[in-house]
Design brief:
The protein is of the alpha/beta class. The protein contains five helices and five strands, in the order E-H-E-H-E-H-E-H-E-H.
Length: 160
Amino acid sequence: MGTGRRVVVVTGASGGIGRASAVAFGREGDAVALLARGEAGLAGAAAEVEAAGGKALVVPVDVADAEAVDAAAERVERELGPIDVWVNVAFTSVFSRFDEIKPEEYKRVTEVSYLGFVYGTMSALKRMRPRGRGTIVQVGSALAYRGIPLQTAYCGAKHA
C-alpha cells in the first residue's frame, strides 16, 4: 500500500455504530473494509467513508458464516494490505417475548451477535499474530449486564 494509512475492518458497517465507526476511521484517512449483509447500506457507508477522506472496500458477508468471514479477511488483505485494526460491531435482534420467540430466531441472534464476534476475532488473530501487531475492538452493550423486556435473545448473546 505504501500510503501510511491503516487498514481497518468493521463488521456491521452498513448502519448504526458500525457505520459511524467506519466513517470515523475514514476521517483519519484509513482504508476501511466494510463488512455486512445489506448491500444498499454498504454502498451508502462506502460513499460516506470516501467523502470523509478514507478509502472504502465493500465486502458483503454474513458474519455468522466462519468460512465467509475468513474469505472476507483474505480479500481485504489481498486488496488493501495487512489488517491493522478489526472492529466487531455486527449484531441482530428480535423484539419478542421470550415465550413467543422461535428457536431459529434465537439461534440467528446468537450466531450473529456472539459467534460473529468469535469468527471475526479468529480471522483477525490468524493474520495479526504472525506479524506481532494489530488491534481488535469488541463493541459491547450494556444489555450484556442487564436484561430488558423483549430483548432476551440479544441480551443473552451479548452476555456470552
